[in-house]
Amino acid sequence: MEFVALGHAGSEHYVGLESFPNPGVAAVEMTSDELTAVCPITGQPDFYVARIAYRPNALCLESKSLKIYLSRFRSEGAFAEALAVRIKNDVASALELDAAAVMVTLTQKARGGITIAATA
After folding, report:
1. Which tens digits make up the pLDDT trace of 62-116?
2. Given 33, 46, 60, 90, which residue is catalytic?
3. Which residue of 41, 49, 52, 103 has the fewest C-beta atoms within 10 A of its own C-beta?
4. pLDDT (tens digit, 9 = 90+) per residue, 34-69?
5. Residue 9 in 3-state DSSP?
6. CATH 2.40.128.20 assigned to 17-119
7. H or E segment and range at residue 20
8. Which pLDDT value is given to residue 113?
9. What are phi and psi of 75, to 5 degrees?
10. What is the pTM of this model?
């Protein structure tokens, strides 16, 4: 198995979410506090903790490709709720899973005194 992103510095090696054969795990949870997007109305940055949990069948998600995937939202305008659904669908597609096997929770760090948690 050869990964494109893993083992290479920089995001120019990103080709999409990569996967590898499931070695026999029943559940996987990945958490990142490096997700940033912008509010589609104000253009202000929104900072998130992203929790991605899934029940793998044949494939597991490679973490470096996920890190690069999440970093690509820095200049995109999206509400937390829509972003959670998009990430869920992209992960499910990459792992050849039904979307019901993937749960994504984005917890937006407080801005204006409000914290948002959106689960898809």
Report:
1. 998 999 999 999 999 999 999 999 999 999 999 999 999 999 999 998 877 788 8
2. 46
3. 41
4. 999 999 999 999 999 999 999 999 999 999 899 999
5. coil
6. no
7. strand 19-21
8. 77
9. -110, 10
10. 0.84
d(CA 3, CA 64): 10
**Residue 34 identity:** E
Place of tokens 């893993």: 6
Distance CA 11, CA 65 (A): 9
Element (H, E) at 45: strand 45-54
Largest CA distance in the chain: 46
Place of tokens 């494109």: 4
Question: How many Cα atoms within 13 Å fall on the side-chain side of residue 115?
Answer: 8
The DSSP code for 77 is B
- Domain range annotation of the chain: 17-119
Say which of 39, 60, 90, 98 is annotated catalytic.
Answer: 39
Is 98 known to be catalytic? Answer: no
Is 33 among the residues known to form the active site?
Answer: no
Q: Measure the CA–CA gap between 23 and 46, rounded to whole angstroms.
A: 36
Decide if 54 contacts 105 (C-beta within 8 A): no
